[in-house]
Design goal:
single chain; alpha+beta; 5-stranded antiparallel beta sheet; elongated
């Protein structure tokens, strides 16, 4: 493997905490550890969505995780579409790219959380 072909990835996992709260976990990993970080994010039981970005914030790969069964399909689609531009994700990617931290986690600030069903009307 050449010097410039070595993986240097930022792996993002959106973790289901409850219906109205997800956590964004970010890890910076290189080489074989990058594959391990990606696979860990992908197979974690509460991962709603995982994504891999390079150090220029280009999307490398990603998809729904095992925890995606905890959210409605329309919410998952919206999350997938908005993930790369989400402010929390961008903040985590910026921190990881700077090298200041190798792992970062924050609550996901997002307007796409499922809405609670209105209470039934009273008779």
């Amino acid at each position: 493997m050449g010097l410039f072909s070595r993986k240097d990835w930022n792996v993002i996992a959106i973790i289901f905490e409850r219906a109205d709260l997800y956590t964004v976990n970010g890890n910076r990993a290189k080489g074989g550890d990058a594959d391990k970080a990606r696979d860990g994010a992908r197979t974690h039981g509460r991962t709603v969505f995982w994504a891999v970005f390079d150090q220029k914030r280009s999307f490398v790969e990603g998809g729904p995780g095992a925890g995606s069964r905890n959210v409605p399909a329309d919410v998952l689609k919206k999350l997938e579409r908005e993930l790369p531009m989400n402010r929390t994700v961008q903040d985590i990617l910026k921190t990881l790219e700077s090298g200041a931290e190798g792992r970062v986690a924050k609550s996901l600030a997002w307007t796409g959380y499922p809405r609670k069903a209105p209470p039934p009307p009273e008779d």
